[in-house]
Amino acid sequence: MSILIPLFFGFMLEQASVEDLSLRQAVKLAVSTHPSADSARSALRAAAERIPEAKAGLRPRVDYQENWVRSSNPVFVFGSLLTQRQFTASNFGLYSLNRPDFLNNFQSLISAEQPIWDAGRTQKAIEIAESQRQSAAVSVRQVELALASRTARAYLDALLTAAAIPVAEQAIESAQADLRQAEAVRDAGRSTAADALSMRVHLAAMREQLVMRRAEARIARSVLSELVGAPEKTTFTLTTPLESSAKPTPEGTSERPELELKRLELNAARSHVALAKLAWMPQVGLRVGFEADRQRFVTRAGSNWMAGVTLRWTPYQGGADRARLRMSQAMVASAQADEKTTQQRVRLEVVEAETFLEASLARAETAQSAIASAEESLRITKDRYDAGLGNLTDLLRTETAMTESKLRLLAARHGMRVAQLNHAAALGKLSPDSEVLQ
């Protein structure tokens, strides 16, 4: 079912040029279909295959080899005739021993080796491979968390820029009405042409703002489309409101993937130390083999077999084993320091996210209360200007203040949503199912 969801959304986005898209749907699409998530999942599958590769060290190894040699070397000819079971009394002649004719030897070798005891080397290799698989799985979570955060932020940016366009359009309508009023006052002889010209300049500035808002909206929607993998020229109706009704993510223990990654890296480094210490331990194995030697490819042949137990011990490698041990121990020290640094950084990011969340809530309340004051101030200033008691400078100032108050309110709501997302991401609890996305 989880696989069908992104396929369904992908089909819908390809079939229609305009589609409803919620914040939660956008995050699900990005996490399911973005190339960076596919890359991380492929890396996980590759890491998982290292485990059976490491386990192969406990299983037998079988080799097959086919050789052909033609030579008149006396030792080669003498030995080959013996292994081919073709040695006769005539071959004992001094001349034939010293100057034998050329001889072919088609040799087939089949050998098998079975480790009996390797002092735990294979087990340590399996532990390292398992740590790498777990690290790859955590990396998938890390990529999905980053994608969820980026996509949610892009969605909110698209909401903000889209909401700013009507504010700019309303500012133009107000400026046009003020321009008509200024021209009427000028025509009545109660002001000079300077007021009408100033209003035209103000109107031009508002139109410039509208152009910029529309450009910002197109850019924001393009970023969102790239993240969700939408076809080119697809447009969305963003259905999640900018004003949040979601509760902040409850505080608790951080579940950041970075912390888990550092812990796994430390465990892997310790396994490397244990593996390096095993370099001084011997290994015991069982070896069996079968050999067939022939003068012709299929005839005039002899065969033999062998079986034995091997003991391999390397007490000295020129200092390489000690160097590997020191290197592994240094990796452990580095991993411990990295883990501590990451813990400190994550704690700081959580504190910052909580602080910004508190500040954004207060900012949204302040911006909301400022709207009413700005509206009342604009009404009084317009009434005074229409009655000839105010000047154009005061009117322009209050018009600008009203527009800025509306934009600040939008920015405050946007900031509050972003702060909620950042708080959830800092705790490692941002996912397509998070309540903060509603």
Provide tags for this entry.
438 residues; 65% helix; alpha+beta; 4-stranded antiparallel β-sheet; two-stranded parallel sheet
Description of the molecule:
The chain has helices at residues 4-15, 23-33, 35-48, 50-55, 74-83, 94-98, 121-187, 193-228, 257-277, 320-386, 392-426, and strands at 18-21, 61-71, 103-117, 235-238, 283-294, 301-312. It has 438 residues and is an alpha+beta fold. The chain has a single domain (4-55, 122-272, 319-437), classed as Outer membrane efflux proteins (OEP) (Up-down Bundle). The strands form two sheets. The protein has a four-stranded antiparallel β-sheet. A two-stranded parallel ribbon has the order 1-4. The relative contact order is 0.14. Mean pLDDT is 85; it is low at 1-9 and 11-16.
Please render the helix and strand layout as text.
Layout: H1 4-15, E1 18-21, H2 23-33, H3 35-48, H4 50-55, E2 61-71, H5 74-83, H6 94-98, E3 103-117, H7 121-187, H8 193-228, E4 235-238, H9 257-277, E5 283-294, E6 301-312, H10 320-386, H11 392-426
Parallel strand pairs: 1-4
Antiparallel strand pairs: 2-3, 3-5, 5-6
